[in-house]
Amino acid sequence: MQGEHKENMQNLKEELRAKIENYKHELAQAENQLRQLCENQEEDQTFDNRQQQKSSKTGGDMGGETEDDMPASPHLPPNKRSRFAIISQQIVLQFQPSVDPDDIPYEQIAFWKNIFSYIQPNDYERLHLRRLCNMFRASLKAPPPGKWTEYPHPNHASIDSLFNRLNALNFLVPHLTATVVFIKEGEHDIQGYEREPAAAAAAEEAFEDALHEPYLRVKYAMKIIGAGRDKTFIQGGGFQIQGAKEEGKKVVLKGMTTSNGGGSGLLNNNGLSFLCDSMTFTQCGCTGVFARNTNGRLINCVITQCRYSGLYCHSTTLIESLVELEGSQTKVEGNGTADNSGHSGLYSFEYSSIHLLYPLTKESVSTHNHGGRNYCSLGTGISGVIQTVDSFELF
User: Nearest-CA neighbor of 224 among 237, 241, 212, 236?
Assistant: First the structure.
């Protein structure tokens, strides 16, 4: 009975998603037709000029979103409004946020909120849905604040090219640089970068190509958001978080699956704090998540089938490194495929801690790692700690 109910809910969700896609397509077609109708009309030009003057007078703070996030003005010349009214009545009710509170269509907003709760659009879809009309804008929560960009990108043949450009722009004009990057559905390859021979010789772990670093470098605080761990796949390399530590600043990774046969899925050696939400790190040639001299949090993350430890936390200073784990989907399993006794599912080494938010425990989270090495805390000075806590310290 429960399985049948689950199947019915899934069918309903797919049906609603299809309807929304149709609505979006019809809205786009209607807008294009209306633009063509208004293109050469003198009154349209007068109207546009009036709207532009009004916009220049009332510009300013837009609630944390960039101008591109705002919906297009729904105003149309009087002789075009009737056409638009017919279309909108068939698709979705239009309204102005500035109208009298008594005139706001709360029932319609509640209706669309209910629909979107079944469809569960991701951050990127939500951003573009909110730009279609004020009804969707009122029905969906705001996307992450800040300037944004996306990949694939028409000006960048690779994801490395885009991030190299972003890192360079942040160094020159940080206030103009995107702080949100949406990575669309699909498989995306990381090319990595070449490091200096001196740095390669000093590296702790030797690879066949010692000069090559299979990582995408992230040098400033930003949010990198995929379409979902079952939709966005990062291959051939992992994320390397750098950047000087700063209070309240962190790198956020969300909704992706990362596999890096030549290194770690996430490498953070004395870089910015990090937060991973609904990420999967799998089949990594080194550690799934490597955190040294830094702090981070993993929410509903999966680390599996990595060559060495699933999560490795370490500090080389007297300042403790800390990684926090939470969420019922959190899982660390099948790691240590190199069969090296020095690695475990969860590994906390010297002046470092791994905290699991109750009801998670190290026994429930880290399972079926090779050789039964599910967790380990060691150190030549002060040993590392792996423990369940009632609350978190970070963020």
Answer: 241
Distance CA 221, CA 373 (A): 34
pTM for the full model? 0.76
Q: State the Cα–Cα distance between residues 71 and 142, nearest whole angstrom.
A: 12
What is the pLDDT, as a whole number, of residue 104? 83
Would you call 388 helix, strand, or coil by DSSP? Answer: strand
DSSP for residue 177? S
Q: What is the total count of domains within the chain?
A: 2
Quote the Cα angle for 126-190-289, to 5°. Answer: 80
**Contact in structure between 71 and 131 (CB atoms under 8 Å):** yes
Contact 183, 159 (CB under 8 A): yes
Nearest in space to 246 (alpha carbons), one of 272, 274, 270, 224: 272
Structural domain containing residue 246? 180-389
287 & 339 share domain: yes
Those residues of the chain that have pLDDT short of 50 are: 38, 40-76, 78, 80-84, 87, 200-202, 204-209
Token duo for residue 15: 């049906």
Q: Has residue 52 been placed in a domain?
A: no
| The pLDDT of residue 32 | 66
